[in-house]
Backbone:
């Protein structure tokens, strides 16, 4: 964690590291890994809420814990922008990080792949690889999605690529 800003370092030290190296094809070991994932997510969510900084809600969308869905949001100029969040756990997990998707933003920025998958290749994937299997879903949100949104959402709003829901409703009423 050398060279990291104090806030990121503080946040990261409060998210439990994972120990079970198992993916969706690993049966009982995957169940143990999912328990660790939930504990880390609960810790991260609780920490964010205690700082009045909650910015996402996710849950497993299937009993196997291989598909996740939820919402994430970003406040810019005192307006809350909310997006659907989804991702699948790759079969090669935890060696491969999940590809986080914001489908509503598909095609609105160059830092995104087809289907609304956010680009984490340059900055996050080497970090994930270095910390496998200790990193999990909570770490992907903290070190992948959060900084991506902080960098991209203000630009998308300021350029008019995304509109606040109240602005969209106002423009529809006047049409």
Residues:
């Amino acid at each position: 964690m050398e060279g990291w800003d104090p806030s990121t370092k503080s946040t990261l030290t409060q998210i439990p590291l994972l120990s079970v190296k198992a993916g969706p094809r690993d049966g009982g070991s995957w169940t143990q890994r999912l328990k660790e994932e939930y504990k880390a997510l609960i810790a991260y969510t609780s920490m964010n809420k205690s700082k009045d900084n909650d910015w996402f809600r996710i849950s497993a969308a299937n009993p196997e814990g291989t598909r996740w869905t939820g919402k994430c949001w970003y406040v810019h100029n005192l307006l809350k922008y909310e997006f659907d969040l989804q991702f699948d756990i790759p079969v090669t997990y935890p060696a491969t990080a999940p590809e986080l998707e914001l489908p509503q933003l598909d095609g609105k920025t160059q830092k995104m792949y087809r289907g609304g998958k956010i680009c984490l290749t340059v900055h996050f994937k080497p970090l994930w690889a270095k910390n496998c299997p200790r990193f999990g879903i909570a770490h992907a949100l903290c070190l992948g999605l959060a900084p991506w949104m902080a960098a991209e959402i203000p630009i998308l709003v300021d350029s008019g690529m995304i509109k606040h829901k109240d602005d969209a409703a106002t423009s529809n009423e006047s049409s």
User: Anything to note?
Assistant: The chain has five helices and five strands. Helices lie at 6-13, 28-50, 124-130, 137-158, 165-174.
